[in-house]
Amino acid sequence: MENNNINNILTRGVSEIIVEKELRELLVTGKQLRLKMGFDPSRSDIHLGHAVGLRKLREFQDIGHKVILIVGDWTAQIGDPSGRSATRQMLSADEVRANAETYMTQFFKIVDRDRTQVVWQSEWFGDFNLANVFDLTKRFTVAQFLAREDFAKRFREQRPIAITELLYPLLQAYDSVAIESDVEFGGSDQKFNLLVGRELQGNMGQKPQQCLIMPILVGTDGVQKMSKSLDNYIGVAENPNDMYGKVMSIPDSLITNYFELVTDVNNEELQDIKQSLEQSHVNPMDLKKKLAHNLVSQFNSQEIASLAEKNFESTVQRGETPQDIPEYKVSFHRDTQIFSEVASNQEFHLAIKEGNSVSVFDLFHNIGLVESLSEGKRLLSQGALTVNGEPYSSSLIEIRESIILGRGRRRFIRLITQTMD
Question: Which domains are assigned to the chain?
Fold first, then answer.
């Protein structure tokens, strides 16, 4: 490989490499490297934050290397042993497999399926016994693990640290041993775990893996790490209109960062974008439109991206309600207080409050515009729920033959009702 090609792969979108000199030497040998990426399928969706690492994997694949995708089906069934995360609940084997299948469909939107080997963690942990666990634990000290930033902070503050939590880095490290990883990829928040894997390989007679550490992508709020639980994410499988609109909502300060980490614009163009913003030579909205079009195209097509752009311009910039919106047809049984969704023949029960009125939170939740009743209440208080294009503020809504329900300026559903005796 040419040095400038290696330099670009090892510098753009990379925070740190351990050990860079060794990785550079490996890359010029021509040996096909085994690239490790693991995930716990505790959720079914991936977002642009995950795409940062996946794009780097694809760059390595394009120069001849092989990805080993580890499905953490064994650890995902444990959940969060600390009890601190409501999003990492104990899952059944069937739930884990269903999440994993959905995840991989999205994973292969970025990574080349033909140059990827999928392995399931249970292939080696399924036969683990107590002797194997003791063998792992004796190779590290408690002091080493308390050096990890979050453990150290909680220890200082005398907050609980479950013994099982200390095992997680060991289990992830053993994954590297099981697949004989040459390079492991992870975000900067995973640095400690990657280093444990490197050390464990050395302890068990393998050549220690290199660690390629990437920056954390900040979410649409412009403050915190992109995360579904923080509702500041952009999913790779989202509706194109939603994806486009969410990209347009990012703070101007993130434009250059997003172009660098999740697009293929060349370094010269990236520098021009940065300078144009710094010198106020360009309208940030124009750059965000270019970014949004780029990202929707990546995961869909140029044509769909152009349609999403037109939708944004009409619904957000000109305040129009889109014409082509999904319809939700229901039959309303007045006496039994039941809505039946016509297409799927599913029923949901809504209590009649006054006349033909029902709870706006229940209605928006049942038709899928909000994920929970608490989210519905929050959005209503923010003026983000609309009825026929106007912000709605009442907690009750009268059932009419046809109304357009909206969430924000991007998601709409036309509710068509038929009253039955």
Answer: 3-214 (3.40.50.620), 240-317 (1.10.240.10), 327-420 (3.10.290.10)
